[in-house]
Amino acid sequence: MMTITIKERHLIEEIISKNTVCYVGMINTDGLPYVIPMSFGYKDDVIYLHSAQEGGCIEILKKNPNVCVTFCTESTMTYQNENVACSYRMKGSSVICRGKVAFEEDFAEKVKVLDIIMKQYSNRAFTYSEPAVNNVRIWKVEVESISSKVFGVPHPNSRKYKNEK
């Protein structure tokens, strides 16, 4: 099995668009990794997230805004030889983004971001009440670095790959 690096931006964005959840990693105040699943929106190299106004994550990010955001397509089991356990591997695609969280406070911008997030899940138009917008914390992560891979790809010389052609 092989892992292939993806460089084409449209393919990377296609992987992101197929996801309904991303995983946001940060370093907590004890210096330990902390990862949470979140709903998201993505547009023009910016990942948009939302949460409550206060909480553990907000305190962590105020001290260290660096995050790693990971997207992964649904994986399927594959193998090169069904009788050899070590030839089994998960097949799927992933994207890893790094950046810093900036909190958006402007009401009109928060509404725009909520629309971007909702577009990930629905093509409907939404309205938001003023208290709801005021009570949500908007996170903006400008992507500083991005990498993507497809993993579990059959090697071109494997028996299974040749039989699938």
**Helix-strand topology string:** EHEEEEHEEEHHEH
What is the overall pLDDT average? 90
How far do the termini sit from each other? 16 Å
Largest sheet: 9 strands, antiparallel
Q: How much strand content do the residues show?
A: 35-45%
Number of strands: 9
Weakly predicted, low-confidence segments: none
Question: What integer value in Å does the Rg equal?
Answer: 19 Å
Helix content: 25-40%
Supply the helix-strand structural class.
alpha+beta
Which fold does the CATH topology refer to? Answer: Pnp Oxidase, Chain A
Overall CATH architecture: Roll
Number of helices: 5
Structure description:
Helix content is about 25%, strand content about 45%. It has one domain (about 1-165): Electron Transport, Fmn-binding Protein, Chain A (Pnp Oxidase, Chain A), CATH 2.30.110.10. The protein is globular. It has helices spanning about 10-15, 55-65, 105-120, 130-135, 160-165; strands at about 1-5, 20-25, 35-40, 40-45, 45-50, 65-70, 75-80, 90-105, 135-155. The mean pLDDT is about 90. With about 160 residues, the protein is α+β, with helices and mostly antiparallel strands.
